[in-house]
Amino acid sequence: MQRGGAVSLLAVIARVVLADSPLVEISRLVDWAPIERELEPLRVAMEIRRGGPAPYSPAAMFRATLLQGWYLLSFPELAQATRLRLDFQVFAGFETGFPVPSASSFCRARKRLEKRGKRNRCLKIVETQLKAAGITVIPAAGAVREIRIERTKL
After folding, report:
1. For residue 137, what are the CA distances in angstroms to 67, 95, 106, 114, 150?
2. Domain that holds residue 145
3. Tens digit of pLDDT for each residue in 61-109?
């Protein structure tokens, strides 16, 4: 969410506007540190490579795969929804107001995560944390509809 050390005004507005978003609630419930640790070797490997634009964070791309699953989106639909929806940008950790990954970038990132077994390990971490919090995510059919959070009594 930062570029050049300053938080963008759009990012601040997004946090205020999205305060009651299910995605923001999930983002607050999940401890993302274990996922960052799991994906650290992938991040380092991506930063070492030469040429091309700076890669998107593997953690942000993993979070985007969560959105893809929860909203039942194809890669082109995920790219479009991420461009249009502030809550998708904030949840994934993309800088609001800046370009987001293309459909092919999302596809390559998901394949990279799956090839290394990282996606399933990170999914288990998220699912375990949400279950411990008594949260079940009810998928939505498409980016126009919102996911629901179902709370179970612990």
Report:
1. 11, 25, 22, 22, 6
2. 2-151
3. 999 999 999 999 999 999 999 998 888 998 999 987 788 999 999 999 9
